[in-house]
TrEMBL record:
<dbReference type="InterPro" id="IPR029001">
    <property type="entry name" value="ITPase-like_fam"/>
</dbReference>
<dbReference type="InterPro" id="IPR002637">
    <property type="entry name" value="RdgB/HAM1"/>
</dbReference>
<protein>
    <submittedName>
        <fullName>XTP/dITP diphosphohydrolase</fullName>
    </submittedName>
</protein>
<dbReference type="GO" id="GO:0005737">
    <property type="term" value="C:cytoplasm"/>
</dbReference>
<keyword id="KW-0378">Hydrolase</keyword>
<dbReference type="Pfam" id="PF01725">
    <property type="entry name" value="Ham1p_like"/>
</dbReference>
<comment type="similarity">
    <text>Belongs to the HAM1 NTPase family.</text>
</comment>
<dbReference type="GO" id="GO:0047429">
    <property type="term" value="F:nucleoside triphosphate diphosphatase activity"/>
</dbReference>
<dbReference type="GO" id="GO:0009143">
    <property type="term" value="P:nucleoside triphosphate catabolic process"/>
</dbReference>
Length: 210
């Protein structure tokens, strides 16, 4: 059983599409969300904590909107910014910028307590630089005892625009890809180019050989 740590059943349904015959279950676990300038360390920390809680293979994701002209803001703070500042104000911040390029990113972190090789996106005991970038494992007495975690990233590129569309959620109304905002897309259109879907596709290919 692969435990997807999320409160959103839609993520589990999306994962099933990419994972073939793998059995995927939803787990609601409030892991510690550390502060970090990148998504990887946050997801990796959550995966380690969730694995220690359940003792079974776990998948944790973290995602955000990264706006070039705002130095990547709101990035890993996207959820907090949406709740406190609001989507419209993020648009107002970028409205006057000539460069409105932006991207949605998602990082999936997988942990099953076992060793694995360092491709395609490494965080393991054989890659000290990547392991350090992913954040220290606070429960390990020594770095060598840190739980190995693998990261898989998905990205969809677009641009920041004035809010359009009635669908989707979060930043979807202000993110345009190929002429449509995410809020103007059907569920099928959105899933076809989803940053989470792209990360799941990478993970699914690797997991099939795991």
């Amino acid at each position: 059983m692969l435990n997807y740590v999320t409160t959103n059943p839609g993520k589990v349904r999306e994962a099933v599409q990419y994972l073939g015959d793998a059995e995927v279950g939803q787990v609601d676990f409030d892991y510690t969300e550390i502060q970090a300038p990148e998504l990887g360390p946050i997801a990796a920390h959550g995966a380690r904590e969730a694995y220690r809680q359940f003792g079974e293979p776990v998948l944790v994701d973290d995602a955000g909107l990264f706006v070039d002209a705002l130095g990547g803001f709101p990035g890993p703070y996207s959820s907090y910014v949406e709740d406190t500042v609001g989507v419209d104000r993020v648009w107002k911040l970028g409205e006057g910028e000539e460069n409105r390029r932006a991207e949605f990113r998602c990082v999936l972190a997988y942990c099953d307590g076992e060793e694995f090789r360092a491709s395609p996106d490494p965080i393991d005991r054989d890659d000290r630089v990547a392991a350090a970038a992913a954040g220290a494992d606070e429960n390990a007495e020594e770095e060598e005892d840190a739980l190995p975690v693998k990261l898989f990233e998905g990205v969809v590129r677009g641009r920041l625009v004035a809010p359009r569309g009635e669908g989707g959620f979060g930043y979807d109304p202000i993110f345009e890809h190929d002429g449509k905002t995410m809020a103007e897309m059907s569920t099928e259109e959105k899933n076809a180019i989803s940053h989470r879907g792209r990360a799941l596709a990478k993970f699914g290919e690797w997991f099939a050989e795991r």
